[in-house]
Amino acid sequence: MPVFFINRLYTKHHQHHSHVHTEADPDFAPHGFWKWYFRFMMNYVTIIQLVIMAIAYNVLNIWVEEKNLLLFWVLPSLMSTFQLFYFGTYLPHKGEHDNEYHASTLQKNHFVAFITCYFFGYHLEHHQKPGMPWWQLYKTK
User: Fold this and answer.
1) Taking a C-beta distance cutoff of 8 angstroms, is the pair 93, 102 a contact?
2) Could you report the per-residue pLDDT of 67-91, keeping only the tens digit for each?
3) Which among 38, 42, 31, 97 is positioned nearest to 105, based on CA atoms?
4) Closest CA to 21 of 95, 122, 105
5) Which of 10-48 are b and which e, b meaning 16 or more Cβ less than 10 Å from the residue's Cβ?
6) Which residues of the chain have pLDDT under 50?
């Protein structure tokens, strides 16, 4: 459901890399899972995006049954925000780390790394090589 604007993503993501694990980091909140998730989402979703999604939902509802919109658009979209946040941000940055990026790589096998968040669990490697596309991060292991 969330429609992310690339310029906002770009700016916030670079802010994350510049201020990792601090109050200025849009991808970090030291206050538990739910507060962290909501802070993460509030940093990336804007009112205009919500308005666009509401308009799209209501227009689509003219031709598509509401239960199908909820089941095949809204629910998967919301679940994907949890997937990205949990496997790509929360787990890799949660707790204390002994590196300058305050990040870790999820300790799973390659297949699990693929299905959980399409290799974004290789988060330490992402910070070490930020120019590498996330779908190739597994090559740095």
Assistant:
1) yes
2) 999 999 999 999 999 998 998 889 9
3) 97
4) 95
5) eebeeebeeebbeeebbbbbeeeeeebbeebeebbbeee
6) 1
Cα gap 16→103, rounded to integer Å: 12
Query: Containing H/E element for 97?
Result: none
pTM, full prediction? 0.82
**Tokens read off for 25:** 């980091």
- Residue 29 sits at φ, ψ, to 5 deg, of -150, 120
Cα–Cα distances in angstroms (integers) from residue 122 to residues 46, 90, 129, in the given order: 28, 13, 11
Q: Report whether 118 contacts 135 (CB < 8 A).
A: yes
Tokens, residue 114:
């693929």
User: How crowded is residue 135: how many other Cβ atoms within 10 Å of its Cβ?
Assistant: 12
Residue 94 DSSP class: S
Q: Check if the beta carbon of residue 120 is closer than 8 Å to that of residue 126.
A: yes
What distance lies between CA 74 and its chain's CA centroid? 17
The DSSP H or E segment spanning 121 is: none
Contact 122, 88 (CB under 8 A): no
